[in-house]
Amino acid sequence: MTLIQQIFWGGLFLGLCLVLETALLLWCADALRRHHIRFSHHSRLMRQLGMLLIAIGFVVAAHTAHVWIWSAALVLKGGIFDSWNPAVYFSVATYTTLGYGDIVLDSGHRIFASFAAMTGMLSFGISTAFLVGMMRPVFFSRPVFPQD
To answer: Which pTM value belongs to this model?
Structure first.
């Protein structure tokens, strides 16, 4: 891929992942609102545990989906890998910015793949902010969701 193609496709997949994360976090907020009533008669510990598990489940699902999107991009769009195992491995290592370096891409795909790392950094920041924002009221005994 040319430099412009790498930037275009990398930005497109990054945007797709962030739209997906936004949708999942909005869905999570809605699920937490619905389950807030369900957990209201439980002990404080059970309420906290239930709400936290729901939120973490959505965040893990979002990050897992991102890794699969980037794996698919590397196998299907980039044609870089011919099987899913190394593509998923490379995607996880890049997305988490761990970057073992045991798989190095050619110069025609390096910038494209670096967008996976940017996706991971942005997504981890967004999901951390979401968890803090949604869980703070749960742990500090303030109403999680004001009555409408």
So the answer is: 0.85
